[in-house]
Design goal:
This protein has about 100 residues and is of the alpha/beta class. It has helices spanning about 20-35, 65-75, 90-95, and strands at about 5-10, 40, 100. It has a three-stranded parallel sheet with strand order 1-2-3, covered by helices on one side.
Length: about 100
């Protein structure tokens, strides 16, 4: 029987701050890998955050300018995969047999 050590991360992003969130992800993934995890599972929509309670000012029959600004910030905090935001992980993630599940 093969044992696979995994880490399930239950944490929160820094909403609307992509760089701080990615820095946090790198720290959490490295911490899990240093403890022997070869599979790291992050929460759904961790990068760019899951906007619980945020309706972007778009309720039925109503559209607010602040909602457009919130959505712009939300959109701009997303990342392209593959892309420059993923480059810092290449050494760790390129290691054979290591897997990361990270929602964006």
């Amino acid at each position: 029987m093969t044992i696979v050590r995994s880490a399930v991360v239950q944490d929160c992003p820094i909403v609307f701050d992509r760089e701080a969130t990615l820095k946090k992800v790198r720290h959490l993934v490295k911490q899990a890998a240093d403890r022997g995890a070869v599979l790291v599972l992050m929460p759904e929509a961790f990068v760019s955050g899951y906007p619980t309670g945020l309706d972007f000012g778009a309720r039925v029959g109503l559209r607010q300018p602040q909602g457009r600004e919130d959505f712009r910030r939300y959109y701009e905090s997303a990342v392209d995969v593959p892309g420059p935001a993923c480059e810092p992980w290449e050494g760790l993630l390129g290691r054979e047999g290591f897997f990361l599940s990270l929602g964006s």
